[in-house]
Amino acid sequence: MARVEFINANLAIAEGVMAAGLRFFAGYPITPTSDLFEYLAVELPKRGGVVIQFEDEIASINAVIGASWGGAPAMTATSGPGFSLMLEGLSFAIMTETPLLLAYIMRADPSTGVPTKSTQADVFQARYGAHGNYEIPALVPWSAQEAYELGAKALWVAERLRVPTILLSDATLAHTFERVEFVPVRRAERKKPRVPPEEYRPYEPEDDLVPPMASFGEGYNVMVESLTHDERGYYAPTNEAHRRLIWRLVEKVRRNWRLIHDTKTYYMDDAEVAIYAYGSTARAAYAAVKELRREGLKVGLVRPTALWPFIDEDLKRAVGGARRVFVVENNIGLMYKEVARALRDKEVVSAPLIDLELPTPDQIIEVVKEWRR
Amino acid sequence: MTTVQAAAEGGGEVVEADNGKFRVVVITERCKECGICISVCPTKVLVKGPKANSRGYRYPIPEHIEKCIGCKMCEWSCPDFAIFVERVGGR
Amino acid sequence: MEAVRRLRKHPLDGLLRPERLPHLWCPGCGLGIALGAILRAVKRRIEEGYLQREKTAFIGGIGCSARASLYVDFDSAHTVHGRAIPFATGLKAVRPDMKVIVIGGDGDIAGIGGNHLMHAARRNIDLLVIMMNNMVYAMTGGQLAPTTPTGLYTTTTPYGNPERPINVVKLVATMGANYVARAAVTHPPLIERYVYKALGKKGFAFIEVISTCPEVFGRHIGMRDAVDLLNALRERVVVKQRPHIDESYYEWEGGKFVLGEYVDKDDPSYLERIGVIKG
Fold this sequence. Notes:
The complex is a heterotrimer. Chain A is α/β, with parallel strands linked by helices. Chain A has 12 helices and 15 strands.
């Protein structure tokens, strides 16, 4: 049996990404993320990796990008204020199709907010926080066990699709210690060139829209270009080249959504009412569903493990025949907008329950019962 | 002095001349007519030529090639990789 | 006149991407002079077997100078404004066998990227950073740089620069870099010599290259002609064998730019300290 530890979600992420082959971490201390950083600072060098504390989050993400081009699966971790500083680098990673994992441990609300507590305020920050047209994956765990598994998966997705990928956790999970079993995970691997250097073009995609990636130091003389570029990586400021690149960057993530998504359903087979919830809030929603079932209500839970890209068909499949959908989230009702748009034929109700601890099952039950009348 | 035209690596043409010891080669399409090569030459080999390249820049020609001492100041000071000096007959 | 078809190749074409020439730099821009000298040093190191071409990388940020990375036929990166040094640090940390060279302008390296420069020098990370200092923001059209001499006109200081320029040589030396030198495009062989030397150093190596921007810097000070500006700089530079760090401060009006090797030592590098490379 795999090793079992009693750890929080931050340490579980660290274990997951190491199991998937992480080789470089760069970061800047920030609550509630630092224990992930500290844990890797101890463990990663033992496995041949490098951990560096930088002068800020800006340097951290750019160092991760450099390490990734050096061939190393690489990551950083931060929370809201640090993520805001990383957006410029994130946009660069998107444009240059640089694999990297960004563990984003949400804390409460604008500016310094409540650093040790959490809401789920940053789901759109994770989606479109940076400048430019793009799609990037954001995976969202609800437990320490899933933080381990999705941490590994997010690193795998980043490498497989040559795209920066976000693992969106929160302070509640970061402070919750649970049993975690270190189950086997897939090693993160990128597609390598199959042609000699003189024929290789670093941004020429294969059928899955993902270009094989030569690293620095392999003799391919690759050109990492932040400007709009052609398949060689040469600046190409034409409508044709620009549209071709931007649509491919977006479609690469959308079309490969099955590699990213795994929406979980609970008690949904005969459900007339569905609760849509994600991350830590889904824990309370799950308890609420079980209680409401005991009271005879046909209610179920739909829980995405990836918020982005948002795939309408995947949500429709998960919701099935339920007529009414409550979107329960620890923010002002952010995902509600997407869910309501995707489920136009259903009654979609927003249940924004801002709570620094976690919305309680009772709060959620109250919302559902209020709408039964 | 002989001035010949020859194909340059990467396309375009060159103007060149040699004095039996050194050959000065100008890759005309790269020239931007800044005049630095003419100004730094200690023996005044180069002059602004009569012809312009496709971008309208009048490139230099080694009019007084007999004076060339092979110091390569023109080559080292050219911002455009447009001029270089070779030793002749060394091979 | 005899017509002969014959292949003539610039001695640096083998290290460049000739299909991208002519480059975008303005007529008479000093940046091309500096890039030529840098490549000659790299070429000498490669020919001597000290460097391997496929294990040499050029990293640039944003700006005229950073465009150097587009023209060299190596593994190269045109990154984000100010962030070339962090990118290079990450690359070097996982590829300690590679020689990583950062080329950027004064705005890129010492302005928006100044904090990264300072900490990279303090960390003594094994990089060569070459800062082309043309004392102005050139690509964006001639705005104030942190290196613009006091009193000079730029588009954002139309009444004259009220600030003092940052002395980047002294800053980097103070932060503990293993090698700090200043060269100028008036003396390309000096650039070549310092780059050659710096390529052999462990730890953080920094070379400031005083460059000329006739198009905007020159125009602002009434010296639009490339040759005039180059000669004006030539009048102001002084080469010294081992200048004292206090001689590194410069000004344009009546000032001197003291060129030379300010620091040359062998403190343990970052990668040595973390055991990635042997001391």
